Amino acid sequence: MTAPTSAGDPPARGAARTEPARGAARTEPARGLSIRMTTPTPDRTAPEPLIRVTEVTRDYPRPRTSLLKRAPVVHALRGVSLDVRPGERFGIVGESGCGKSTLLRIIAGLDRPTAGQVVVDGQEISRLPERRLRFLREELQLVFQDPMSSLDPRMRVRDIIAEPLVVQGHPASGARVRELLDAVGLPADSGDRYPHQFSGGQRQRISLARALAPSPKILVADEPVSALDVSVRAQVLNLISDLVDDLELTLVFVSHDLSVVKHVCDTVAVMHAGRIVETGTTGEVYATPQHPYTRRLVAAIPTLPRALAGATTRDLLKGALE
Ligand SMILES: Nc1ncnc2c1ncn2[C@@H]1O[C@H](COP(=O)(O)OP(=O)(O)OP(=O)(O)O)[C@@H](O)[C@H]1O
Questions:
Q1: Residues with CB under 6 A from ligand 1
Q2: Domain boundaries, given as residue ranges, for the chain
Q3: What are 281-289's contacts with CB under 8 Å, separation 24+?
Q4: Residue of 161, 188, 209, 246 with fewest CB within 10 Å of its CB?
Q5: Which residue has the least CA distance to atom 17 on ligand 1?
Q6: Is the pLDDT of residue 104 over 60?
C-alpha cells in the first residue's frame, strides 16, 4: 500500500514492507471449493493497485437548525488516500464515527464521494452511473456486522446464498450452494432452514457463503465479528482468513478493534476524525506506532498478565476446583 497522507498529519509510513509475506504453501483448500493450492503473496511490485482511493472527501449535510444559518455539514472523510494491492489484507481501524463505514461504502460504490477519486480494478467508479457498476457488484462483495439484519428472515438459506448469482443472471445450482455451505463449514442440509434457526456465528458463515457465491476478487468486511460472542469470534476470523488465502481474495477489513485487525490483516490504516493518520504493515504499526492517536489505540489493547498468558482454564480455576 502506498502511504496516504493528509495535510497536517505526521508522515504516514511509506510503501516499504518489512513484514514477512504471508506466502507459505497451504496443504488444504477451503472445503468443497475448486481453488488453487497456494496462498497468494501480496504483490508489492504490481504496477496497479486493485483499489486506489485518492483524496476522497465525504460531507453529509445535517438538518438546518435556523433559517438564517447555512445547514451544518459533517465532514465524514477529509482527504483520504490509500492503495490496496491484489492479495493484500488491508485493515482499517479507528474509533466509532471516524469514517470507516463511509469509506467502505464509497469503495463498494454504495455511496459517492463529495470530492476525490476511487479506482477499482482500473475503473474510476465514483462518477459511474449504477448500470455501469455491474462489474463492481460481481468483483466486490460485502459482509456486514450484524448477520441477522443483513439476512432476509423469510428466505431459506439456499435462496439467500443463491441470491447474488440470480440477481446477476447466473445459474445458481444446488450443487454450488452445497459447495459454498461446505466451504464455510455448514452442513449441506442448512440450505433448507431459515436464518433464525442458526447461531450468530453460523449466520455470519451464511453471510460469507452468500458473499463468495459470485466468486468475487475483493471481500469487504465491516466489523464482521463485533456482534458475535467472544467465544466464536476467533472461529469466524480464522474462517475469513482461510477463505481469503484459499480463494486468493483481496480483503478490506474494518474494525474498531486493533487486536481483531492484527489477527487477519497484513496492512493497517489507522483512521481518526475522517483522515488516515498512519499506515503500514500490522507488524510495524503495532510494534512502533508513530502517530499519537495510534499509540493510544495500541496502548489500549488488552493484554493478559504474563503469568496468565500460558495458563490453562484448569490452572486459572485451580483454587476454585480444589
Ligand atoms: N448518511 C449519513 N448522513 C449524515 N451523517 C452521516 C451519514 N453516514 C455517516 N454519517 C456521519 O459521518 C461520520 C462517520 O460515520 P461512519 O459511520 O462512517 O463512522 P464509523 O467509523 O464507521 O463509525 P461506526 O463504527 O460507529 O459505524 C459520523 O459522524 C456519522 O454520524
A1: 60, 74, 76, 94, 96-102, 256
A2: 51-63+71-148+218-303
A3: 281/17, 281/18, 281/19, 282/19, 282/91, 283/18, 283/19, 284/13, 284/18, 284/19, 285/13, 286/258, 286/262
A4: 188
A5: 101
A6: yes
- The pLDDT of residue 310 is 45
Residue 7 has pLDDT above 70, yes or no: no
Q: Give the rounded percent of residues in the chain with a pLDDT score beyond 70.
A: 79
| Residue whose CB lies within 8 A of the most ligand 1 atoms, among 53, 56, 62, 74, for a mutation test | 74
Instruction: Report pLDDT for 277.
Output: 97
Tell me, in angstroms, the distance from the centre of ligand 1 to residue 103's CA: 10
Give the atom of ligand 1 at the shortest distance from the alpha carbon of 102.
Answer: 18
Beta strand ranges found along 6-164 (DSSP E): 51-61, 73-84, 89-93, 115-120, 123-124, 140-143
Q: What residue owns the CA closest to ligand 1's atom 6?
A: 60
Q: What is the pTM of this model?
A: 0.81
- Rounded distance from Cα 144 to ligand 1 centre (Å): 15
Fold of 51-63+71-148+218-303: Rossmann fold (3.40.50)
DSSP state of 132: G
pLDDT category at 67 given cuts 50, 70, 90 is confident
